[in-house]
Design goal:
By secondary structure, the chain is an alpha+beta fold. The chain is 33% helix and 25% strand. The longest helix has 20 residues.
């Protein structure tokens, strides 16, 4: 599993130009369960995604299609981890590592 942090590299007015396309991109990935969670970081500095089990190469290919990245207004930082402890009802996440 991967945690991806998104950091804006351009002023918010430039980021906002690409927000609708980025939102559609996220909605599509969530609907196909290629992302489990996506959300905004406080103070509008970027976002965070939770990506289920896939190879790091697949994650890189997936993130390369982000409209924010394609238009040079954000960058991604990717951290891989293996879920070991989960809240009740989320046991399936352990298999995503």
């Amino acid at each position: 599993m991967f945690v991806v942090t998104v950091s804006y590299t351009a002023p918010l007015d430039e980021v906002d130009r690409w927000r609708p396309a980025h939102g559609e991109w996220l909605t599509d990935l969530i609907s196909r369960q290629l992302l489990l969670v996506a959300g905004r970081r406080p103070e509008w500095v970027g976002g965070v995604y939770l990506v289920p089990g896939m190879s790091s190469e697949e994650v890189d290919r997936l993130l390369a299609t982000d409209p924010y990245l394609l238009n040079g207004v954000a960058e991604h930082q990717v951290m891989e981890f293996t879920p070991l402890l989960v809240a009740p009802g989320l046991e399936e996440l352990k298999s995503q590592g």
